[in-house]
Amino acid sequence: MVKVRLGIIGSAFSSNLHAEALEDVPEVAVVAACSPNRKHVEEFARKWKIGSVETDYRKLLERKDIDAVVVGIPNDLHRAVTVAAAEAGKHVILEKPIAHTLSDADAMVAACKKHGVKLLYAETICFSPKYVRAKKLIAEGAIGELYMVKQGEKHSGPHSDWFYDVRRSGGGAIMDMGCHGIEWARWMYGKPKPKSVVAHCQRVLHTKRTKGEDNSVVILEFEGGGIAVIEDSWAKHGGMDDRIELYGTEGVVYCDLLHGSSMETYSRTGYGYAVEKAGETKGWTFTVFEEAHIYGFPHEMRHFVRSILDQETPRETGDDGRATLEIIYAAYESAGTGKRVTWPYKPKHPDQVPVNAWLKA
What we know:
Shape: globular
Largest sheet: 7 strands, mixed
Number of helices: 12
CATH architecture of the largest domain: 2-Layer Sandwich
Order of helices and strands: EHEHEHEHEHEHEHHEEEEEEEHHHEH
């Protein structure tokens, strides 16, 4: 079997999910892991039985035994690593969002096209088995013509400090999780062009920790009339919550990604892990199992690897990540001005982080 030889750049939360998912992809050989923190990356490599480590991504990209890289690092570092990977002839599987500015995203997409490598945009909820089944129901005509979709992702805040620094992340809940819902909505409707965006942002829980929003609502209208309502929050306690609703002229679909795939557990003493972002495990909790599978990481990675081998056509690309980021810019502008933003749309400051449109309003 022909195998894609991968290097993993990053060794924190998302990289652990990537490494776990790749264990279910027979067409892959994970050759090396890279992180500037040697102790951390060595622990990561031992955990996932990766035979080699690097502390400089440039060294990893120089290696002849690597065909592609999986990038799971802070948003502000995406451009440098992706452009360098393209110049080294490596395909890139990139964790969302594509970048923290639109200028960076454009440079990344252009570099990968120039050097003939694939830029694969890791948007997991377009691969989550439940949500894939929901899309198939739409294609089968189960609920008639789709006219409104809703997606919500909510928890009490990210796991790493850099998320709260808008200079590095680009924004708050919309940037972190709204990118999921926006691309998922585009995918559900067949990726039409956007028509307008209305958004509202607020900061209610992490008022001292970040300048970004920790609660948001985005209403996105597409050409053809379809509407998407996207709710994201860093202010909801009790662990991760991810749900969708699909409304058609002949029916409706409700889907809870995690709770319907978990065990209801009561514990007086608490236990180790329930679900992503759950603060404690005393009392009643929803205990997940096969979490990476539920989210769709193995399905995503299997598809991307087969895309690198030219066995499948990429479903999520750098162009999709760029389109999502443009909508995020428009959402922050709407939240800042209190007005609907319409297309054709060009951000006023594509070289600045998108949340500035809200912060400076």
